[in-house]
Amino acid sequence: MKKINIEGEKFGGLIAIKRYSQDKYKRFHWLCKCECGNDCVVGQNNLRSGNTVSCGCHRRKPQLKADLSGERFNRLIILKRVHVKKSLTHWLCECDCGSQVVVFSGHLKNGHTKSCGCLVKEIAISIAHKFLLFKKRENHPRWDKLKCNSERLKERPSEIKEWSRKVLRLNNFTCLVCKKKGGVLNAHHLNSYQNFPLLRFEISNGVCLCKKCHINFHRKYGWKTNKLQFEEYLSMNYII
After folding, report:
1. What is the rounded CA–CA span in Å between residue 175 and residue 234?
2. Could you tell me the CA-to-CA distances from 26 to 23, 45, 93, 132, 150 in Å, in that order?
3. How many C-beta neighbours within 10 Å does residue 177 have?
4. 3-state DSSP call for residue 21?
5. Between 211-221 and 227-236, two packed helices, what is the crossing angle to 10 degrees?
6. pLDDT tens-digit series, residues 110-119
7. What percent of the chain has pLDDT over 90?
8. Measuring CA to CA, how many Å separate 3 from each of 27, 28, 111?
């Protein structure tokens, strides 16, 4: 390789002091002084091509990015740079709702963070309202269209819960079909809640079923069922 004298020349943050060595491929290496004060040995080709511009301190030192103060990203307006850590810049932002939040610059630019969190809440509420709008009470298997509102108010959820607790306790918290004890259990009406209003809170009209057996029964017979259908289901799934 042709000898080129670069002594005293500056390459980025490095100044070539003197030729230091030559490797087996006849490539020259130079002893350099970095602007941070450290000495290092760098290949001549790396100096001249710009591949090496420091002793390594540039990689360790956080680099300040462009000032984004005042810019808007969706609902967030950047107020000021808060800190730079490991080349990750964070910004203090004010949301349209008035709240302030610290956000990583990358999340602002790629749209990962669009608000202080209020946008997610609004979307969740809108989805919930849309779901409830189509979830009509008339479609529930326990809905009795013959009743007026005053009659419905008399049957409070607490009565149903109390009936369920008594049924499960009477059956020793064991599924009558598969004999599984504990877990997720349901109090099942032998004669359906909707078709037999006089038997709704009779303990003798309830049995304990695990979640799987309860779902399988209603898949087969629907919701307007009676005791004979359950006896048939029980005989088909009887476990000795």
Report:
1. 11
2. 5, 12, 55, 78, 99
3. 23
4. strand
5. 120
6. 888 999 989 8
7. 24
8. 9, 8, 53
